[in-house]
Amino acid sequence: MTPQPAELDRSTGTVPARGGPPLLPDIESVAVVMVTGAPGTGKSTLLRAPAGAGVTVLSATCTEAGAAVEFAAARQLLPVQPRSGTQPAPADGGHRTVLHLYRRALGLLQFGPVRLVLDDAHWCDSATLRWLHYLLRRCTNRPLQVVLAVEPREHPALDPLFSDILGGPRQRILDLDAPEHAGAEPRTDRLRRFLSRQPNLLRVAVAAAALQQTDADLVGALAGLPPQLTVARLATLRNTGVLTGDPDRPVPPAVAEALSGLLPADELQRLRRRAAHMLNDADAPVRHIAEVLLDLDDLDEPWMLERLREAATLAYAHDAPAAVRIWTRLLAAQPQSPDAAVDLAVALLNVDPSAALVHARQALPRTGDARTKARAVVCLGLAALVTGREPTAPYLLHDAMETLRRAAGNMPSLRDRIQLSAVESTLAANAVIGGATFHTVRSRIGDSPVGVAGASSSHRMLAVHALATAYEGVEVEQATRYARLVLDRPVTGDSWAPLIATRVLLMADDTAGALTAASRLAAHHRDRGEPCAEAVARATWARILLEIGDLEAAWTEATTALRLAGDGEWGAATWSAQTIISLINSSQARILAAEQALEPMQERTSDMPLWEQVQAVGATAFAAYWGQDHDRALQRLRACGRLLEEAGVGSPAFSSWWLDEIIMLAIRGQRAEAHLRLEQAEELCQRWRTPRTAGMALLARAALTAEGPNVELLLGALAELERSPAPLHQVKAQLMLGRTLTVLGDRAAARRHLRDGMVLSNRLGYTMLAAHCRNVLSSAGGRTGTELAACGELSSSERAVARLAAGGATNRQIAEELFISMRTVEFHLTNVYRRLGIRRRDALAGIVEATPLPRRTTTVATAPTDGSAS
């Protein structure tokens, strides 16, 4: 009987696979296909499948190295013809290349259907994606199909252009992991059916998966085959996609799991045990031995535990999650071992400090050894620095230190001295961030850091001295020197010390150093796979960005910190990030959102370390002020002052609460109270003198001085603040100076300062402050629109989009003219509206210079050479 051709499924554009592998959709029905699936699911086989008679197939494989090269993938698909002579690349942003590739594709389409296949498209360069989007929009009626194969689960987020390419009506996504594409039978059954008639092939596949090796001698010995036969079967497994070319992971995890399901459990355990012995006898890398040991049900031989400990120690240096996984297995093998519980707690410190607290607490009652107890208590104290105030931590640390001193005797060993230093530095760290008075901390740590045993303890104690000196508010240079000593050394263990050093640099106006340190620390923990420590570093990074007025970047880092924290009880990350988000919302007139961001922290304010506590209370004052609840704002500002006074903090750079309080008291006529606060603040600013504190002190003094004499104070404050990383206070100075000059009758000078303040606040995103500047500028007789065009605050991309929009071009026309996506146009326009302080598109015409849409763009859009609609 002659087989009938399969009927085309019009709903999906595919031919049913009848239990076999899926097929690519028909070119006439589907223009874009995204193929996704883990290694071993048949993705490569699908891409190499015949396309049918008359179809031109052009393929390219994207690489991570080529992701940064413009048109790298496009030139694989359509190789550039060599030409004589050298022609300089046109400085047109790739427009000519896009048009050249477009014309070459049109030439191929004249001879029949064309399929463009990009494997590993997650590494595709943006220029090629832009060209594909351009090509698809102009070939809607042509037999063209673009196939993009990606592995999103194992690579970074896809380029936003993927969404634009997949935005058309004729697109399909083939997920090879989904049951409808993988077939009704599970992957184990498909592998069993494939390997059932070739038992030797099955034995080699399972042996390679158990060993995670493709060495013919080892695999053959485990499979019971000679190396010659093993080599041939390994080649067969590579051709069928069971094995990959990755030497570190030759069998993908999904395939290894499926192969494991082909053997009975007891036989699989015997095979894995034998594999572990073979790898150990062959002196294989300890991480490979550990991977096999982790899958064993019983670790009943001493060498097995020893190898796992070695692997965990090595993994902790670069891959914290791997170390956590190994220590978790070791604790499961020795559930009553306090040392195993402490080792796991230490590995969890930067990954999940809440879990570290649990394991550290569990280890304490299991041991009577002073040294093990000290390790557990240090881990508990370090976890408490991240999760929030732990009331028992200081008492446990003090008790552990006394017990260890008695056990060490009069001549402690180096190991005991290192442990004593670890306990003492952790106790000092908990004291200094928990709100203990400066004198209490100083009485414990001394006036200057002395020689401390152990790198981590030395870093921690230096950071304690840096923060204590900054709290005292006397020696800016000394505090900065201590902080830089911490940051000049590599990060070892927990990241509390470099984070504190970063905060000290911020208080000393060294924002460049603080930004570098925070970004480097976030990258360090990201590379090590430590989400908690990365979240805390990003929250600190966001705070620095907020201080220098980069609200957009601060919002990005704060939301990233919250995403990394998830549901984790990581107070140092979540509290700081929520506070920053609330401050930005308040600055941009989203008062309800600002208050909602602070609500989860209201009941836990007393649990916060002093830094987070003051910042959170200050954020509530900020939200109340812009919400017109000035009484509550003043109340919360005073609460900030009480918190700092009780802790003995004398640095005016810790928070600007005192400046806001003085200005509010002056406005409300409470001048006596304002003068008292001013005298205190000026004394502190003289002791901790930086451009920011000097400018803030002059600003506060000007608020309590009559119009006329205060002009010189305001000009001095403005000069100091322009040298400082405090643009918010700079805008306040411009606003106060503009108001004063307006009252004095110098309206021209007033308008100049108010316009500068309005432009700066608009650029930074301080919507509410910009509105104040705009209102005062209007009352001073100034215009608030056309002057902004000369400010040059827009980026080149934003200016190009804004000028075309002002000339009447639609978003689609702008996208086609500039060869960018519609989403990118909308993004730039949103930024333009925010920076210029406008809300409507038609307002652009009076602010920026309009650029008419070029005639050539209209020609291309309305009359394409292939005769298709745009």
UniProtKB/TrEMBL annotation:
The keyword DNA-binding applies. It comes from the Bacteria. PROSITE patterns: HTH_LUXR_1, HTH_LUXR_2. Keywords: DNA-binding, Transcription, Transcription regulation. Residues 787-852 form the HTH luxR-type domain. The keyword DNA-binding applies. Residues 1-21 are annotated as: Disordered. Gene3D superfamilies: Winged helix-like DNA-binding domain superfamily/Winged helix DNA-binding domain. SMART domains: HTH_LUXR (SM00421). PANTHER family: DNA-BINDING TRANSCRIPTIONAL ACTIVATOR DEVR_DOSR (PTHR44688). This is LuxR family transcriptional regulator. It comes from Dactylosporangium maewongense.
